[in-house]
Design brief:
It comes from Bosea massiliensis. This is GPW/gp25 family protein. This protein has one domain: Nuclear Transport Factor 2, Chain: A, CATH 3.10.450.40. The strands form two sheets. A four-stranded antiparallel β-sheet has the order 3-4-5-6, covered by helices on one side. A two-stranded antiparallel ribbon has the order 1-2. β1 and β2 form a beta hairpin. It is an alpha+beta fold. The protein has two helices and six strands.
Amino acid sequence: MSSVGMSRETGRLIFGFDHVVQSVGDILTTNIAERLFREWYGFPGFRLLGEPLNQVTLVKFLNLIFIALTLRQKNGLPVEPRFRVTRAVPLEANRQGEFLCRLEGEYMPRGHLGDFTVEGKKKIVITNAGDRFTAIEDTGAL
């Protein structure tokens, strides 16, 4: 059984990998410990805001993305159990604050049920749109 959720933009049901992409975007736009009963949910990278943009900061930032998506909760599951990040590729980062990154990983549609059978490899592009990150599926069009 694939996961089902509601689109934050349209209010319609979303299924499968579209729900995973929205979840990844939500994790990366939520400050760590912001959710009352999900203290391990969120992105610890906001503390890097204001740091100089250089290779060291970029590597720290990408590492924190890995941590945010793979950190284990009290129930033993990763925060996002349906997508295992295997690689993060920075595509653009500049002093104007623009950021573009591709996350490559394995899609496990039943990971939230404890079944970590990999269905295939998927890619997600993370970009900052205005004042927040946005996640979209990378279908090769970018």
